[in-house]
């Protein structure tokens, strides 16, 4: 007897044994018409419920043939009551006591009605419970406890040059770009232009003037209409990264350094045992598929690391898009006038988790993180872009904030941002990737 015949016989047998409930239902309906009108509760008629087959009939069937079975029996759990289907889920008391609670969705950050912990309280809670050993400092702080690494200071100097209009516009576009930048209060000198082929420390194509104009106009539009974070990400931030890092065709696999939006990427629970995971919005990553074209050993190294990694990925997150591609730089974005403290805490936590992941890999080999002096990051708030970075000393992570690199309020500022992004992508290719290959993948360094 096949499965359909067994199910049919089973259902027929069960239906034949059902009692006649017609009279009972009529009585219950009449009683409901004469119930106390002051009562606000309605008695639920048992006859309105869909009958369920008794266990005495079901136990005779093979569980795999039971049409009412969802598979192996699992313990029932009480459903969580949700008053507001749009409210941000709240962490439990135990998890809140272990780590700062900061929501990362634009919906929760946009409303003061949310019951989530404020960034101020989250920073305060770090003083009591700080499982990732995260601290914060300022690049230009006078009384800083730790010196900034020389390699990080050199990156800051380069970014500072771009933010003061040095080598930000391709010389070939000098005439075409003139109408866009003529309103700047800072007259441009010859230092603002770089030669097409001779400019060092730059990754990516030369962005056409028309694309700079579009990004600047989109940015102005978003600011005027007080656009939500997701709109900023789509219309401005993503466009900047696409223009700066991808080829003319916009192909995702066009180069070694690429980027992806990753708002749903979570820190793996093996890194943070308790407390809510913090998320970022974009990441630069090393495309292992592109890297394997010049070094086939990369594919085997990816497979080996994923087999060892608790996240089953080569990163501190198991986010699918980056499971095979090492994260090199992270970006946290907010809408214009968004919560800057929130962004600082989010990218700081993300960086601390990344450091811990890398440290565990090195420790499994009896080694330390020598050679990696910092991890770069960006905080974007609507128009405005800021460089941040984290360093690690012993097992403590310090997030350094923050250095302005440009603003898409103007075309000149857009050029500054694009040039800074391309410089940081160059750093990912020339500095971070060789270190990662040698120290995490255990591969011989190789020019890219």
From TrEMBL:
<feature type="domain" description="PD-(D/E)XK nuclease-like">
    <location>
        <begin position="191"/>
        <end position="433"/>
    </location>
</feature>
<dbReference type="Pfam" id="PF20516">
    <property type="entry name" value="PDDEXK_12"/>
</dbReference>
<dbReference type="InterPro" id="IPR046797">
    <property type="entry name" value="PDDEXK_12"/>
</dbReference>
<feature type="compositionally biased region" description="Low complexity">
    <location>
        <begin position="97"/>
        <end position="112"/>
    </location>
</feature>
<feature type="region of interest" description="Disordered">
    <location>
        <begin position="27"/>
        <end position="123"/>
    </location>
</feature>
<feature type="compositionally biased region" description="Basic and acidic residues">
    <location>
        <begin position="27"/>
        <end position="39"/>
    </location>
</feature>
<protein>
    <recommendedName>
        <fullName>PD-(D/E)XK nuclease-like domain-containing protein</fullName>
    </recommendedName>
</protein>
């Amino acid at each position: 007897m096949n499965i359909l015949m067994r199910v049919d016989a089973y259902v027929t047998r069960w239906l034949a044994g059902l009692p006649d409930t017609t009279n009972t239902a009529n009585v219950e309906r009449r009683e409901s018409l004469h119930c106390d009108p002051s009562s606000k509760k309605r008695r639920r008629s048992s006859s309105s419920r869909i009958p369920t087959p008794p266990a005495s009939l079901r136990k005779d069937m093979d569980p795999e043939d039971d049409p009412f079975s969802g598979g192996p029996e699992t313990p029932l759990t009480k459903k969580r009551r949700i008053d507001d289907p749009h409210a941000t889920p709240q962490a439990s008391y135990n998890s809140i006591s272990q780590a700062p609670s900061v929501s990362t969705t634009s919906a929760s950050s946009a409303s003061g009605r949310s019951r989530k912990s404020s960034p101020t309280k989250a920073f305060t809670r770090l003083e009591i419970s700080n499982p990732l050993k995260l601290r914060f400092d300022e690049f230009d702080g006078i009384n800083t406890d730790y010196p900034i690494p020389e390699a990080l200071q050199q990156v800051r100097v380069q970014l500072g040059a771009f933010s003061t209009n040095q080598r930000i516009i391709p010389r070939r576009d000098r005439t075409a770009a003139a109408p866009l930048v003529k309103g700047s209060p800072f007259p441009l000198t010859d230092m603002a232009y770089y030669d097409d082929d001779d400019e060092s420390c730059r990754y990516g194509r030369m962005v056409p003037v028309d694309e700079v104009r579009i990004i600047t106009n989109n940015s102005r539009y978003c600011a005027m209409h007080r656009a939500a974070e997701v709109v900023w990400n789509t219309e401005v931030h993503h466009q900047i990264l696409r223009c700066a890092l991808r080829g003319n065709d916009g192909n995702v696999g066009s180069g070694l350094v690429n980027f992806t939006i990753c708002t749903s990427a979570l820190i793996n629970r093996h890194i943070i045992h308790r407390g809510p995971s913090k998320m970022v919005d974009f990441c630069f990553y090393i495309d292992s598929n592109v890297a394997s074209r010049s070094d086939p050993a990369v594919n085997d190294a990816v497979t080996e690391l994923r087999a060892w990694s608790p996240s089953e990925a080569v990163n501190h997150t198991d986010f699918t898009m980056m499971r095979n591609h090492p994260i090199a730089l992270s970006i946290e974005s907010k809408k214009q006038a968004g919560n800057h403290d929130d962004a600082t805490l989010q990218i700081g936590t993300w960086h601390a988790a990344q450091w811990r992941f890398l440290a565990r890999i090195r420790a499994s080999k009896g080694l330390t993180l020598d050679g990696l002096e910092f991890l770069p990051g960006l905080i974007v708030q609507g128009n405005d872009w800021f460089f941040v970075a984290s360093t690690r000393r012993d097992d403590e992570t310090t997030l350094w904030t923050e250095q302005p690199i440009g603003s898409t309020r103007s075309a000149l500022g857009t050029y500054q941002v694009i040039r800074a992004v391309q410089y940081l992508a160059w750093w990912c290719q020339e500095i971070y990737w060789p270190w990662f290959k040698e120290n995490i993948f255990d591969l011989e360094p190789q020019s890219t």
